[in-house]
Amino acid sequence: MDEGENGENSMSYVWKEDSECNLAWCSPTLGCGKADDGALYKGRRVSSEPSKFPFSIMTSSNALRTIGLQHVARGVGRSTDLVISKASGSYVYTVEGNKYLDLTAGIGVTSTGHCHPKIVKAAQEQVGNLIHGQVNLFIHEPMVKLIEKLKPIMPSKELDTFFFWNSGAEAVEAAIKLARHATGKHNIIVMQGSYHGRTIGTMALTTSKTIYSTGFGPLMPGVYVTPFPYTLHSPTQKALPPGTFRDDLTTEYAIEQLELLLKQQTAPSDTAALIMESVLGEGGYVVPPKEYVQKVREICTKHGILFIADEVQSGFGRTGKYFAIEHTDVVPDIMVMAKGIASGFPISGIVSRKEIMDKQPPGSMGGTYSGNAVACAAAIATLEVMEEENLLLNVQERSEEIFGRLRQELSPLLEKHDIQVDIRGLGLMIGVEFYGNGLSKLHEKLNSKVSEAIVGQCFKNDMLVLTTSVYDTMRFIPPLNISKEDTMIAMDILMKSVKEVIN
Ligand SMILES: Cc1ncc(COP(=O)(O)O)c(C=O)c1O
């Protein structure tokens, strides 16, 4: 036991010994590691001993960390236990003053970087004028102005009627409510590997990992799963010579399975909607072939099934276009937006055609904070920054640089372990999956997935990166305005970390 730093009211805590960490990539001298709850830590980690809450003045970083660990619901989980107090551009700063290059952007949220001055100013000004203009009571100015900014960037002019909410999951639920009501049907088709949220409704639509729904059932009924065209893991690739991949076969198979689903499990007359992420996110940063998305659109139109595009993670410039679905020339019936829309302020939304939206009776939609005025002002400022700083171009240029370096440098590093690397994605939504014959051997040596070990080593080297999916995959989602210089620093840290892990 050690004594806290805040006098008699501070909690007791013990240090976890570095030697307890058995991960090969964790150096005991540096004292970094991965705790039982999965969080990466640097230095020595405090235990989860019960604390003597409430505390007096909590200024010590360890005291703050301990409250965070003990008094925030354990179900939240987190990938590091850094206590941060400040962030700017592509960097976050801990209370101890350490600086990390942030390639997570708060999981695709801080699109204009942390605390962009224009977003800060817009929010500050809005706070002085109107904080809350409840949507079931008023039409407020920032929401109307936001709609005016959003309309021209929608994938089609037809998508002209909006409903705003707070989180991505809520917006997905709004889309499902809309589809059920507008069609008078109830079943929903989702893609295998999809992620749509953690609420009671959306966890039934989420199939990326069982962790999100195990033990929380019964799940919402009427959800049917169809394969996503994930070429690397498609059964159609097994007969091909090693190293050969054919997206056309994956597409054919996935379409066949969707058609079978409509014949065997959920009749078109019972099916309200099909929801798909325009780029599979939590499922592994997989880009569906354009032909697949176009065929799905045709099938939906033929059967009167509404096509919902979930652009929560892939939207607002992330892939080099405002919305990832634009890469396929498909227009959805309903589109779901959130995350990057307001650079970190909580706002989400759906858009659809007026004739679909107007079927809902007044009062059936809404919510206390729905389309909050400050969040709307931040969203307008985000869109202005995107135009003024030409962020779509920055996304394309930085993307080319990242893809270039990954392709040139990563594969040769892993070849000696008989591991291949699938580098994929669009714009600044980039996934790297490790696969091949040597994978299990390296997993054994590292006592973790390769992606996890590299993410842990990047953390030691002061850079934040995330893994994704049930496979061995890392994902890169930096801010859309990351500079060329920071992009190069990020790639240098990554390559250094990979070498340190595998050598
Ligand atoms: C594609 C997609 N849909 C929905 C959600 C849920 O959004 P939120 O976490 O804001 O509820 C996410 C979150 O990661 C997402 O990536």
Automatic annotation (TrEMBL):
Could you list this entry's UniProt keywords, alphabetically sorted: Pyridoxal phosphate
Q: Which domain of life is it from?
A: Eukaryota
Q: Which InterPro entries match?
A: Aminotrans_3, Aminotrans_3_PPA_site, Class-III_PLP-dep_AT, PyrdxlP-dep_Trfase, PyrdxlP-dep_Trfase_major, PyrdxlP-dep_Trfase_small
Among the Pfam families in the record, one is Aminotran_3
Q: Which cofactor does it need?
A: pyridoxal 5'-phosphate
SUPFAM superfamilies on file: PLP-dependent transferases (SSF53383)
- Give the similarity note: Belongs to the class-III pyridoxal-phosphate-dependent aminotransferase family.
Q: What is this protein called?
A: 4-aminobutyrate aminotransferase
The scientific name of the source species is Basidiobolus ranarum
